[in-house]
Amino acid sequence: MGILDAKVPSGPLADKWTKHKNDINLVNPANKRNIDIIVVGTGLAGGSAAATLAELGYNVKTFCYQDSPRRAHSIAAQGGINAAKNYQGDGDSPYRLFYDTIKGGDYRSREANVYRLAEESVNIIDQCVAQGVPFAREYGGLLDNRSFGGVLVSRTFYAKGQTGQQLLLGAYAAMNRQINRGKIEAFNRHEMLDLVLVDGKARGIIARDLVSGEIERHSAHAVVLATGGYGNVFYLSTNAMGSNVTAAWRAHRRGAFFANPCFTQIHPTCIPVSGDHQSKLTLMSESLRNDGRIWVPKRLEDAQAIREGKLKPTQLKEEDRDYYLERRYPAFGNLVPRDVASRAAKERCDAGFGVNKTGEAVYLDFAAAIERYGREKAKTSGIDNPDQATITRLGEEVVAAKYGNLFQMYEKIVDENPYKTPMMIYPAVHYTMGGLWVDYNLQTTIEGCYSAGEANFSDHGANRLGASALMQGLADGYFVLPYTIGDYLSNDIRTGPIPTDSEAFDKAEADVRVRLERLLNANGTKSVDYFHKKLGKIMWNKCGMSRNEKELKEAIEEIAALRKEFYEEVSVPGSLDEMNPELEKAGRVADFLELGELFAKDALQRNESCGGHLREQYQTEEGEALRDDKNFRYVSAWEYKGEPKDAVLHN
User: What are the φ/ψ torsions at residue 380 (nearest 5 degrees)?
Assistant: First the structure.
């Protein structure tokens, strides 16, 4: 345990995955019936893995803290899923998808894993179409594609602005089939609170029934963690409010290395913060950048007038607008990678060109798209010499067909009609590229403990390309993990059931009870949210879009002090043996307070800028990330040693 061996197969990149599948050990169908697997998390990665493993014949237990797998945060994914099908005939291929992903991650991804991801992407679409996922189609009935940031082709398959929801329903339907067969035992409203190791191998978990409060023991021959990312360490993010790091952090404390925690994606198209009362932020899909043009006023006085309500954006002439992405990056325009778009928006707002009351917003304008689509629609509809009102009406209909639910969501939140006035957007925490370190088989540094989807670190380097999260989750769950886990489980065909009355389970349960009782007995006066908000402000101000040595050192000290205050001053009402949402939150925030310090420590040691990690002293004159490939091409894999400050770096 704890030794870094990526287990990447030898040979050319294009042959590694095929060779590996041919070489690894398998478990025959009769033996699969005697092997138990726990899957924690039932989003796209966990749900697809559970369904596929059960279909293969394994006995699967699934755990999620929601009341149904359908409520996993995967449901919030809007824009689409990438696949190198080349249906548009625009030169796409698995190699180009691989290259775009490596380049988009600023050359900090594991190449073998990414090439495998690109290979399997084409199978994902076939799988999901067979499940009935209603992907958008062209007029002739063929599957449609659109572009996302950081690429020069159209490879993103989508279902309006609800792609994650539709894919999750497909995975959930596959899960339900196995539940009805008795191959999956689903434990909804359960939260994993510790990983149980027997002789150094992951053999089960300690979970809490969130309805009754009962602490439960569950054993298995292997444990899969597919619990998503840790963006809520910032408090305000586009993640669901329940999204947390607890399962991954408990595994980390038991010996699983945590990789690249400082690699966090700031998404450029989110609804701006409106005040201190907010508890989360809302994503506006990157797909909107296909047709929306991002701009700010060219003159400071115009930006000031807009902030003061004296000038409307629609009153500003075209020549007085700065389409800064199109100006700075003509090859990609508004479809630059997310890290580039986010930094550019921050730079414009910091320079005083922000357009909302806080000065932290830029415009995403669809007027040109409405005009273009309107004229095209009029032409194809046989309308000669249409007037402007007809062009606008037809253009709005086309835009509504593509993005209608997103526009409706924006209007409900902001109370402005985005068809008539530009959207306001600003970057926000969205995705975490860091996570549990895994090898080529998706196994962590703990034998028998696997990690899939956003919970692991492997595929996106320092910045994820848009529409690649769904691709990774489903590739891991449907096509990678079901193969690779068999290699490990082939040694367990004669092990027999894992008992839960062992000393290892006794100790793990006792540790969980001590931790929860400590939170309940703090008898402080401050709420859990008080500490979470304070942590979020430290993280955003000192570990956010730009970072420097001074503030990172301050963040480490401030988070450590906040953690000490948390255990002394937090107030958690209620008891252990009942439904207690405040206790759930307290446990998650306690883990965020440890992760936050490791996050800052990781950012401090990485003396370079790459992807979503911008160190202010390491950037070009134009403000772009300045990598140091000679000294920092490695993965930062951290070993737990009792306190975040004592964590040991492996690379």
Answer: -70, -20
The residues that bridge with 423 in the sheet, in sequence order, are 364
Pair type for strands 59-64 and 36-40: parallel
Judge if 335 and 290 occupy the same domain.
yes
Q: For residues 469 and 462, what is the distance between their CA atoms, to the nearest angstrom?
A: 14
Domain range enclosing 626: 502-650
| pLDDT tops 60 at residue 2 | no
> Which among 546, 484, 38, 9 has a CA at the least distance from the CA of 251?
38
- Please list the residues that pair with 217 across neighbouring strands: 206
Nearest to 196 by CA among 251, 146, 158: 251
Please count the structural domains in the chain.
3
Which amino acid makes up residue 133?
V
Place 79 in a pLDDT band, splitting at 50, 70 and 90.
confident
Give the separation between CA 475 and CA 470, rounded to whole angstroms: 8
Count of residues making up the chain: 651
Average pLDDT over residues 153-176: 94
| Tokens of residue 510, six digits | 């006792």
pTM exceeding the 0.85 threshold for the entire prediction: yes
Same domain as 486, residue 459 = yes
Query: Catalytic residue positions?
Result: 338
The secondary structure of 155-170, three-state, reads CEECCCCCHHHHHHHH
Its sign, for the CA torsion 433, 434, 435, 438, is positive
H-state helical runs in 285-331: 300-307, 324-328
For residue 234, give the nearest of 388, 427, 53 by alpha carbon.
427
